[in-house]
Each structure stands twice: as structure tokens, then as C-alpha cells.
Sequence to fold (217 residues):
Amino acid sequence: MKPIVAPSLLAADFSNFTNAVDEINKSGAEWIHFDVMDGQFVPNLTYGPKLLADLRDKSRLTFDVHLMTLKPEHIAPFFIDVGADFITFHAEATTQIYHLLTDIRNRGKKAGISIAPATSINAIEGVLPFIDLALVMTVEPGFGGQRLIPECLDKARKLVKMREEYGLSFLVSTDGGIKESNSAQFRDAGVDVLVTGSAFFQSADKQAFVKKIKGLI
Ligand code: DX5
Ligand code: ZN
Fold:
């Protein structure tokens, strides 16, 4: 299976999100990744649910929300109400992991859990039966344009194996520092979703970029 590509709006021109979404719509990517940061869980601060509300009718692509916020149980409902498709939050940000995963699913959306580079898979092993997506950070959460931490890929490989062993069907997503020159190792690891911000928006030919990181050309 070729990986799904999810360009991150964090790397877009914040003065023209409509144009950025239009570029993603035309690129062949299947998802749009929204990096939501609260300045507490990570040092950076981005945007809230109103951005999704205003962009929802501009794209039929999957809206993949990545909450890098403390107390994600408080803010997740607002993103569900404005049309998010996937809601992923950090295992490090709440004690209510199981509760929030089931709440997201009960409200008809896909539930994801994310782990930062320092966090072991053990932190989420207990909830693998209750997720639709496991997001392995391949950079420290908070900023785009960072260098890939290759060791993090081992966690993605292990999650692919555990999924087979346990007979589960969640997607394995990776996020941070992904670009054309390093994308083969993600495909070889069996990763299902490639989140890419700066490399996507810096590419002159976005359709060719998407095809290349999918391994199609
Ligand atoms: C980092 C975000 C990533 C980031 C990816 O905290 O979660 O989604 O925007 O951007 P690049 O591809 O530039 O590393
Ligand atoms: Zn992200």
C-alpha cells in the first residue's frame, strides 16, 4: 500500500490559508494535517477550531487534527463540532487517555494517540485496541522545519509489527522532518501516513513531491 500524505498547515503562509488548502487539494495528498498548539504542552501557539470551521467547505480531504495541548479532553469536542475527521492527542498530555479515545469514537470520529520522541510505546500499548491511529513523532513536537530523529522510526516499525501480532487495524502515522530524500525509510517501515510540512510547502511542484514521497516516481 502506498502511504497517505498529510501536508501540515503549520508550514503554510498564515496570511493565506485558503490558498494553502487549494494547493493541498490539487497536490494528490489525501489528508490535511492541522497542528494545534497551546503554548503550554509545547512552546508554540497556532490556531483553534475556527480555522477548521472556515476551511471545512474548501476541501473534501480528511481533516487530521493533531492536538499538542494540555487537557485535550477539554478542546477535542470543539474540533469534533467543526468537522474534524481524525482527532489525535498526546499520551503525555492527559491522564484520561482511554476515556478521551472512546469519547472521540462515540462521537463518530477517528481517535488517534501520539507519542513524543522521549515516550516509549509502552505508554500506549494498553490502548492500542481502542485507537484508529498511532502518531509517532519523528521530531520534538512544537515546530516545523526540524531535522528528523531517525531512531524514532524504530517505534513506528514496532507498532506495525504489534498491529499484526494483535490483529488490530489502526493506522501508523509519522510526523516531523519527512522529505523526499528520507521518505523511503518510512515506506520501508510500513508507515501508513506521512505528515509533511516544510518539505511540502517548499516544493515547487507539489504533485511531483507527493508522488515521490509515496514512492510512485
Ligand atoms: C510538529 C508538528 C509537525 C510539523 C511537521 O510539532 O506536529 O506536524 O508541522 O512539519 P515538518 O514536516 O516541517 O517537520
Ligand atoms: Zn503534527
Summary: The chain has one domain: 4-214. The mean pLDDT is 98.
